[in-house]
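FW: tagging you since you asked about this chain on Friday. Here's the raw sequence from the shared folder, copied in full. Didn't touch anything.
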Amino acid sequence: MPTMTSVPDRDEVFGQAIPFYRARWLPLLPGPDWWPAELDACPTVAGRPRVDRTTVFGIARRSGTVEGRRHLLTASLVWGAGTRARSVARCARVFAESPPQEIDEHLDAALGVLREEGAVAAYYAFSNGHHIRFLGPAFFTKVLYFAGHEQRAGARRPLILDRFVSLALRAADTGEKWPPGGWTTPRYGRYLSFAHDHARRAGVLPDQMKAALFARGKQLA
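HL: got it, structure written out here
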């Protein structure tokens, strides 16, 4: 692991809550039925609702249906974007650039690959034949992470890969230099192996190891 990397405890990771503004999202969705009701039940802190990982995991349990997959995508984007108008608008381009039926088809196919073949194959699916325009690895790995947390094929749980994790991996002794983006499927597989191996040695969950890498990447940035 990179130096100066501390691993947060499980409750801290699962309780990580991100503020959001419902009013910013609703006009950008294909329809109001893409908004999961669970987000309206989130607690409010300092005047803003906050969604935590546990809530999105609950939404992901409904991803066996068209509506559930739509809600999972929306919740993953909301959790990842925060409150900045520019971030929300950038994430919402997913909905503006593809018809709902096309998004539905790609989500169904890629999450089917996740169930049947595992995280790395699903990463390939989202990167290639089932790519959704403007849904890059930093966000489609969020969808994979939440969808595959409880039900997954293979030995490696899907984890989020973003630029901060990449920065931390570049500083770690992984035997290769990590680029800031454009991560290939084999590279994603090596990241999962690295995170799972270090989590096992430390006696923590892979989610905790990913959170440690993310925190270290933010320091390096």
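FW: The longest strand covers residues 48-52.
HL: agreed, and The mean pLDDT is 93.
FW: great, closing this out.
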